[in-house]
């Protein structure tokens, strides 16, 4: 059993900290956000993530998991320190490493014994070397430590499951001692025979970006095929199903939509392109995926406006779904932001609802009119737009919807409603690559 500190208690840090304590270690999750820590100490989970409350409760009750805003003490008491702070988009698409390097300095100042310093945040190639240098400088080279890169692949919405039963674990380190300590941290996963890739620090750092960029390319590619379907009258769902049967392609990530969002793909693709430039290589495919994604978000706005004959001023639009995907409250880079922004700028009245993300979207649009159910939201609307694939939107009763709205105009950016039912109810509708008429 190890004493572990996880620095940064956001989507990744909180899930990882709770998950590692579930593996049997003593974990303190530390954050400079005192308010967040106070909520956690009171048993309140500050994010929406299925299964997280139970995981946290279970480990707090077993006295293996605690929360602290004293980052320095958390570092002092730990054998292994995970860095899980944010790495947002910085200048020219490069990663902003301010928080990561702040933590590195704090570690250097509080290094009181041999420790493993392990980065979970997504950081550019070469950051490991940078962190090690800072720790050496701030600790006056007095004490030994090992640096490990352990990128995280959990997905918001299924983060608990992804952390406890990952497809693979990547460990980048430079000596056997560090690999052995990480093996101990992840012991249950080794016992389960989860694939573990042990590699160099730089390779581990690149694996994370290469994976996220590949998935982004797959999404953008399918979105462009869907757009082609729109123009030629083909059905993208049949196209993607037939493509996915081919084992070389796989059926995952072939679902078209309003463009990818979230806190990872948009910034990680840009950061990878920025790294490629720095190293004098090209990533034309990834650059194109970024452009295609921006255009996809704009295309959804155009589709919506077209449904209303480009006359949105004074119209009431119901936006169903604000999170960048279902099962999360995260609205970072959500395609809903582009839709709401365009509607407000063109004088429309926006009514919005998300089962988990109303509050987060209100931080971006203070005056946004939010509701607690889809029924209240669509009442007297001139048009409804579905932006997130929440199950409760899949189950919408279209006859009830038609009764509630003022005009039956509907844009389904997630292709979750049945076209036959929309036709039967006489909706003026559009979708992404499946429209019938
Ligand atoms: N969100 C995801 O789905 C996901 C998945 C895999 C990897 N990642 C990567 O993990 C990292 C964290 O992402 P996130 O979504 O959890 O971020 P987040 O914004 O939800 O959380 C970051 C936390 O770090 C804290 N913090 C900032 N500076 C700090 C400091 N100096 N000391 C202590 N705490 C500090 C913040 O208060 C915040 O609570 C990023 O690099 C991200 O790219 C995210």
Sheet/helix structural class:
alpha/beta
CATH superfamily of the largest domain: NAD(P)-binding Rossmann-like Domain
What best-fitting shape do the alpha-carbon axes yield? globular
Q: What Rg do the Cα atoms give?
A: 23 Å
Mean pLDDT: 97
In words, what does this structure look like?
The protein is an alpha/beta fold. It has two domains: 3-199, 3-Layer(aba) Sandwich (Rossmann fold), CATH 3.40.50.720; 295-431, NAD(P)-binding Rossmann-like Domain (Rossmann fold, 3-Layer(aba) Sandwich), CATH 3.40.50.720. The protein has helices spanning 11-22, 34-41, 52-61, 71-77, 98-109, 127-138, 159-164, 176-185, 187-191, 201-232, 236-245, 265-278, 284-307, 335-345, 358-364, 374-378, 391-394, 398-404, 419-424, and strands at 3-7, 26-30, 65-68, 80-83, 115-119, 145-149, 169-172, 196-199, 316-320, 349-353, 369-370, 383-386, 409-412, 428-431. The strands form three sheets. It has a six-stranded parallel beta sheet, sandwiched between helices. Strands 11-10-9-12-13-14 form a six-stranded parallel beta sheet. Strands 7-8 form a two-stranded parallel sheet. Bound molecules: nicotinamide-adenine-dinucleotide. Residues 7-13, 31-33, 36, 71, 84-87, 99, 102-103, 121-122, 152, 154, 156, 263-264 line the site of nicotinamide-adenine-dinucleotide.
């Amino acid at each position: 059993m190890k004493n572990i500190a996880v620095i940064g208690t956001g989507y990744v840090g909180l899930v990882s900290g709770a998950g590692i304590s579930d593996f049997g270690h003593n974990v303190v999750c530390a954050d400079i956000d005192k308010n967040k820590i106070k909520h956690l100490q009171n048993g309140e989970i500050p994010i929406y993530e299925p299964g997280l409350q139970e995981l946290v409760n279970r480990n707090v009750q077993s006295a293996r998991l605690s929360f602290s805003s004293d980052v320095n003490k958390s570092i002092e008491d730990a054998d292994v320190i995970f860095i899980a702070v944010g790495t947002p988009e910085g200048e020219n698409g490069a990663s902003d490493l301010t928080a990561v390097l702040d933590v590195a300095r704090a570690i250097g100042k509080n290094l009181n014994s041999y420790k493993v310093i392990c980065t979970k945040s997504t950081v550019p190639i070469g950051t490991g070397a940078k962190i090690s240098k800072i720790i050496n400088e701030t600790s006056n080279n007095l004490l030994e430590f090992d640096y490990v890169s352990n990128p995280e692949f959990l997905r918001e919405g299924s983060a608990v499951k992804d952390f406890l039963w990952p497809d693979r674990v990547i460990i980048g380190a430079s000596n056997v001692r560090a690999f052995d300590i990480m093996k101990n941290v992840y012991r249950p996963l080794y016992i389960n025979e989860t694939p573990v890739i042990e590699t160099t620090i730089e390779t581990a750092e690149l694996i994370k970006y290469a994976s996220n960029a590949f998935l982004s390319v797959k999404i953008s590619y399918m979105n462009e095929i869907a757009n082609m379907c729109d123009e030629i009258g083909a059905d993208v769902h049949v196209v993607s199903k037939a493509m996915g049967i081919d084992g070389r392609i796989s059926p995952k990530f072939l679902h078209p939509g309003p463009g990818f969002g979230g806190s990872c793909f948009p910034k990680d693709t840009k950061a990878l392109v920025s790294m490629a430039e720095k190293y004098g290589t090209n990533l034309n495919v990834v650059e194109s995926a970024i452009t295609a994604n921006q255009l996809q978000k704009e295309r959804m706005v155009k589709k919506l406006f077209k449904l209303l004959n480009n006359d949105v001023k004074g119209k009431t639009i119901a936006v169903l779904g604000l999170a960048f995907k279902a099962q999360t409250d995260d609205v970072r880079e959500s395609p809903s932001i582009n839709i709401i922004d365009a509607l407000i700028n063109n004088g429309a009245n926006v009514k919005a609802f998300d089962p988990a993300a109303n509050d987060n979207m209100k931080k971006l649009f203070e005056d946004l009119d939010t509701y607690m159910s889809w029924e209240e939201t669509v009442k007297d609307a001139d048009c409804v737009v579905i932006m997130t694939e929440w199950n409760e939107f899949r189950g919408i009763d279209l006859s009830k919807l038609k009764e509630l709205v003022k005009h039956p105009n509907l844009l389904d950016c997630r292709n979750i409603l049945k076209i036959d039912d929309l036709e039967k109810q006489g909706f003026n509708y559009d979708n992404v690559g499946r429209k019938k008429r």
